[in-house]
Amino acid sequence: MNCQFCYTGRMSLRRNLTTAEIVEQAVFARRLLSNEVGSITNVVFMGMGEPLHNIENVIKAIDIMVHEQGLYFSPCKVTVSTSGLVPPLKRFLHESNCALAVSLNATTDEH
């Protein structure tokens, strides 16, 4: 999205993560932190890149994360944070029962 208030927005897009790469981040975090802080209960999709630009892999990863034979996170504990790309946003709302956060930030106070 090239958001100037986000440091990673200054980097160029190299590629989208695969479904496996997205899920592996949660698996790795669970393994790494389970002994130190207890179990990880929440997942938020945000940061380096707009999740809805990678909607196909994000939805597949969410399905694995909330499935009882997957990582078994509660759907109400999984949130996708977006700048609000409308067509994939509608798809997300139709295909997922996880939470959605829409960022209404801007680089200036102008309307």
TrEMBL record:
<keyword id="KW-0411">Iron-sulfur</keyword>
<dbReference type="InterPro" id="IPR040072">
    <property type="entry name" value="Methyltransferase_A"/>
</dbReference>
<dbReference type="InterPro" id="IPR007197">
    <property type="entry name" value="rSAM"/>
</dbReference>
<keyword id="KW-0949">S-adenosyl-L-methionine</keyword>
<dbReference type="InterPro" id="IPR058240">
    <property type="entry name" value="rSAM_sf"/>
</dbReference>
<dbReference type="InterPro" id="IPR013785">
    <property type="entry name" value="Aldolase_TIM"/>
</dbReference>
<feature type="domain" description="Radical SAM core">
    <location>
        <begin position="1"/>
        <end position="111"/>
    </location>
</feature>
<dbReference type="GO" id="GO:0003824">
    <property type="term" value="F:catalytic activity"/>
</dbReference>
<dbReference type="GO" id="GO:0070475">
    <property type="term" value="P:rRNA base methylation"/>
</dbReference>
<dbReference type="GO" id="GO:0051539">
    <property type="term" value="F:4 iron, 4 sulfur cluster binding"/>
</dbReference>
<dbReference type="Pfam" id="PF04055">
    <property type="entry name" value="Radical_SAM"/>
</dbReference>
<keyword id="KW-0408">Iron</keyword>
<dbReference type="GO" id="GO:0030488">
    <property type="term" value="P:tRNA methylation"/>
</dbReference>
<keyword id="KW-0004">4Fe-4S</keyword>
<dbReference type="GO" id="GO:0046872">
    <property type="term" value="F:metal ion binding"/>
</dbReference>
<keyword id="KW-0479">Metal-binding</keyword>
<protein>
    <recommendedName>
        <fullName>Radical SAM core domain-containing protein</fullName>
    </recommendedName>
</protein>
